[in-house]
Amino acid sequence: MNKSRLEAFSDGVFAIAITLLILDVRLPEVSYDHLWQALKEIIPNILAYVMSFLVIGMYWVGHHTSFRIVAKTDGVLLWLNILLLLCISFIPFPTSMLGKYPQGEIPLIIYGCNLLATNFIAFLMIKYLHHHPELGSEHFHDKYFNDQMPVFGTVNGSYLLAIFLAHYSPLASYLIYGVILILLIVIYVRRTR
Amino acid sequence: MNKSRLEAFSDGVFAIAITLLILDVRLPEVSYDHLWQALKEIIPNILAYVMSFLVIGMYWVGHHTSFRIVAKTDGVLLWLNILLLLCISFIPFPTSMLGKYPQGEIPLIIYGCNLLATNFIAFLMIKYLHHHPELGSEHFHDKYFNDQMPVFGTVNGSYLLAIFLAHYSPLASYLIYGVILILLIVIYVRRTR
Amino acid sequence: MNKSRLEAFSDGVFAIAITLLILDVRLPEVSYDHLWQALKEIIPNILAYVMSFLVIGMYWVGHHTSFRIVAKTDGVLLWLNILLLLCISFIPFPTSMLGKYPQGEIPLIIYGCNLLATNFIAFLMIKYLHHHPELGSEHFHDKYFNDQMPVFGTVNGSYLLAIFLAHYSPLASYLIYGVILILLIVIYVRRTR
Amino acid sequence: MNKSRLEAFSDGVFAIAITLLILDVRLPEVSYDHLWQALKEIIPNILAYVMSFLVIGMYWVGHHTSFRIVAKTDGVLLWLNILLLLCISFIPFPTSMLGKYPQGEIPLIIYGCNLLATNFIAFLMIKYLHHHPELGSEHFHDKYFNDQMPVFGTVNGSYLLAIFLAHYSPLASYLIYGVILILLIVIYVRRTR
After folding, report:
1. How many CB atoms lie within 10 A of CB B157?
2. Smallest CA–CA distance from B52 into chain A, residue
3. Is the model's pLDDT at A5 over the cut of 70?
4. B101, C60: Cβ pair inside 8 Å?
């Protein structure tokens, strides 16, 4: 399997999933007199759109960064990548729920589980690569893997906390998702060369 | 016709078809109190999403693997490829039916016919290539074709059985689709280099 | 403007427009007992899906074939190409109407006008290229343009006839669209190398 | 971050956003007898489709033109680009509102704000590049930046005027959007080489 076709296909899925998010920002059927009111009611949908756009964008950047250390792929990596895309493509669904029930705990829990599942697959991919240096490119170093692990731990621990807190305080849960998102963007901004 | 533009266009259609599947995982309009109940009701949609995601992913991998033996394309191969994409793009429709009527036989039959039609076009493409070695790349060997045929026979025979069993036992039919899917993934994981 | 990015963007729009067609093949909300009946009612939608899939596929093939004679693009060609994509992206709309009102004349007329508009833009692109040989590649020959014109005349004349006949006999109109589609596919199959 | 993967991903998002616009050109459920009437009622949707198609097409052309001066990207440019795509992907939403409430001021205001936000991000990208000549390609000249600024000023000043006028005369507001669009297309047609 050619690495560049794998990247092109993945880019396609990322690009489509990120663009489909806007389909859930829809006005209900109202007369013009109630348009401001209707707009106010879909503010959660717009915020969910922005959050998930940045989340998927972040995964896309992470995908790129990770594939810099890959020189060629094999069947296992290929299918792990398909599972990763399955999780990414699923994000519009909990996003849509967040927009509809912004104050409920269920969408926050499902959103978090979706991110945890995505990260778990990403973790498997990175572990697999770590044990198959023959697939690695010249950017492949043990340092890469050692750098990832504390970030992985922090991010997923925080998501677990956000899921747990969703029941007691949805606001705290949102804050965690937001802070982690900003943190990851900052890390990626610094790392990307 | 340039082979790489054909691959890029096909990748685009595969990526879009696979990502559109999530549009059929939608909650009905319910109040928050009935959200768990509504989620339970769309579990078949989620399972259908996962199955079809893996099925389309598998066809994408198969498409890649097959095009390794192609060096250039002609008009016939190009149009067979368009017919193949027509079948792939159709998959979201029976998937949506499976999600809505998970216990009925009709969606299982239509799903199976969709897969059989896709495989039939793929078979025609491979047969055509076999008779036109001038289109082949350096990976083109008779062995490739001989390896494919028993898999083709087993897979399509099983799909026919699944279609036939749908009336008597939808569960058996699902099992066949699932087992074949896992079997094909295992085969591809081993073959992909 | 780089020719390959123009082609990649165009391929993207073609791939998305062709795959979005399936979104109009949807079952109404019926109980399982009425599923066969509901399926029968959406047969026109399925046929419209197949027809438009092949039509857009044909324009994609034509786009490729035409761009073989182009070496570089300028602003005019770029914007004509965007107008062409505007027409292509519009095709799902009359397709959806054909599926809903298969026996009415209006969808047939709008479908035909959409195709005529697409061909008109394609004609402008080819005329522009003809007068700017400095944009042409090594495949650029007067013969190319002379070969196109009789096909253009026949196809668009037939579409005009189909639009005119829609009022008197929708069936005759469908037949013309179908025959022209098959004719064009046969021509492209022979020409593509 | 590889420049060509950034372009490929951006092209994907542009291509999808531009093609999704057609999903908002939909007929209400009417009997065939009321089809002409229904078509008349969705003329604003069709016009909004055409306008936004050209607007997104224009941003795509602008994106290309701008990236000619870029040789490599860094984390800041990458994330500014993601924010730019976030704004582009949002365009289908105010477009849908324009189609539904063509004579109201609110959609015109939101449409204008969307374009202003997009231009603001584009401005930040260009400013950032200006201060980081090490990212520039051989097309990177101060002249490029000096040429952009008067266009930027005129366009955004006009959008502000259109937003302000929306309350008093929606027609004047539409005229401004239309004239600016045509003006930008003319500028791009002349500049593109």
Report:
1. 11
2. A86
3. yes
4. no
Per-residue pLDDT of chain B (193 residues; tens, 9 = 90+): 678 889 889 999 999 999 999 999 998 889 999 999 999 999 999 999 999 999 999 999 999 888 888 888 888 999 999 999 999 999 999 999 999 999 999 999 999 999 999 999 999 998 898 889 888 887 777 777 787 888 889 999 999 999 999 999 999 999 999 999 999 999 888 877 6
Torsion-angle region of residue A26: left (phi > 0), alpha (psi -120 to 50) or beta? beta
| Helix axis angle, B170-191 to B142-165, nearest 10° | 160
**CA quadruple B33, B39, B40, B45: dihedral, nearest 10:** 160
Q: Which residues lie closer than 8 Å to B5 by C-beta, 6 or more apart? A: C7, C11, C64
Element counts in chain C: helices (H) and strands (E): 8, 0
Residue C1: predicted pLDDT: 67
- List CB contacts of C28: < 8 A, sequence separation 6 or more: C38, C41
Separation of alpha carbons A78 and A85, rounded Å: 11
Cβ–Cβ < 8 Å for B156, B122: no
What ipTM describes this predicted complex? 0.93
- Measured between alpha carbons, how far is A147 from C23 in angstroms, rounded to an integer? 44
Return the DSSP state at A193: -
Distance of CA C99 to the CA centre of its chain: 17
Question: CB distance from D79 to chain A under 8 Å?
Answer: yes
In DSSP terms, C136 is beta-bridged to: C70
In this predicted model, what pLDDT tens digit does every residue of A106-141 receive, in sequence order?
Answer: 999 999 999 999 999 999 998 898 888 888 887 777
CB contact under 8 A, A75 and B11: no
Amino acid present at B190: R
- pLDDT tens-digit map of D6-23: 988 999 999 999 999 999
pLDDT digits (tens, 9 = 90+) for C119-165: 999 999 988 988 888 888 877 777 777 878 888 899 999 999 999 99
How far is it, in rounded angstroms, from Cα D62 to Cα D148? 11
- A77 to chain B: closest CA residue: B189
CA–CA separation, D39 and D53 (whole Å): 20
Closest CA to A12 of D6, D57, D9, C10: D9
pLDDT digits (tens, 9 = 90+) for A161-173: 999 999 999 999 9
A12 contacts on B by Cβ (under 8 Å): 11-12, 14-16, 19
3-state secondary structure chain B: CCHHHHHHHHHHHHHHHHHHHHHHCCCCCCCHHHHHHHHHHCHHHHHHHHHHHHHHHHHHHHHHHHHCCECCCCHHHHHHHHHHHHHHHHCHHHHHHHHHCCCCHHHHHHHHHHHHHHHHHHHHHHHHHHHCHHHECCCCCHHHHHHHHHHHHHHHHHHHHHHHHCCCCHHHHHHHHHHHHHHHHHHHHHHCC
pTM here is 0.94
Give the helix/strand (H/E) hosting D75: helix D75-90
- Which of C1, C13, C96 lies closest to D15 in CB terms? C13
Q: Is D193 helix (H, G, I), strand (E, B) or coil?
A: coil
Q: Domain map of chain D by residue range?
A: 3-191
- What separation in angstroms does the CA of B87 have from each of B75, B105, B108, C86? 19, 21, 16, 25
Q: What is the mean pLDDT of residues A90-116?
A: 95
- Separation between Cα atoms, residue B169 and residue C2, nearest integer Å: 57
Helices and strands in chain D, H and E counts: 8, 0
Closest Cα partner for A20 from B59, D93, C43, C26?
A: D93
Nearest by CB to residue B192, choosing from A1, A93, A101, is A1
Backbone φ/ψ region at D9: left (φ over 0), alpha (ψ -120 to 50), beta? alpha
